[in-house]
Amino acid sequence: MAQLNCDELKKENESLKKALQITTPIKTITSSKIDFNLIKCEGNTKEQTVDVMLTLVNHDANQEFQFEEAKAIDIEANEYKTFNISIGSGSSRNKIYTDTPVKVVIKFTKVLPSVKIFKLIPISYFHDAPGRSVDIEYKDITISWK
Q1: What is the mean pLDDT of each run of 10 residues along the chain (146 residues)?
Q2: Domain 25-145 has CATH 2.60.40.1470
Q3: DSSP E strand stretches across 1-146
Q4: pTM to 2 decimals?
Q5: 122, 102 in Cβ contact below 8 A?
């Protein structure tokens, strides 16, 4: 009986380890009391798309949040621009809650699988006064292709 319980605990531990890996950030940028945690940058070879996945953690009061745009520049100086950004179940605009992570997916299209690294990913979002945008940047992000 103890052996059976031990095997079940091992399976549960492995499951929890995988969950931690999924949400462990590669890089974190804090701006406007919000943590922008880069979780992964994953390419789809068939669709020639790259999804940049983040979690946002708001350390301020509940607020409406909106991305303006995102770009990516590869090491060969090719630039990709997108407005295809989703925050949780919303589009590029959604409410973010105090100390509660929400998943963000930024999708870039027409990216060839030969692109292995984004040299720069500048992302603009609106904060405080309407029309006032703030920029954050991730540098040297490796794309894992599937």
Answers
A1: 66 67 85 96 98 96 94 97 95 94 97 98 85 92 97
A2: yes
A3: 27-31, 34-44, 49-58, 63-74, 79-82, 85-87, 93-96, 102-109, 117-126, 133-142, 144-145
A4: 0.85
A5: no
Tokens encoding 5: 């319980």
CA distances 126 to 87, 131, 133, Å, are 14, 7, 4
Strand 144-145, strand 34-44: pairing? parallel
What is the C-alpha separation between 70 and 136, in angstroms, rounded? 10
Residue bearing tokens 């998943």: 103
DSSP one-letter string for 6-34: HHHHHHHHHHHHHHHHHH--SEEEEETTE
Unique residue bearing structure tokens 């090719």: 78
Amino acid letter at 50? V
CA angle 95, 100, 106 (to 5 degrees): 60
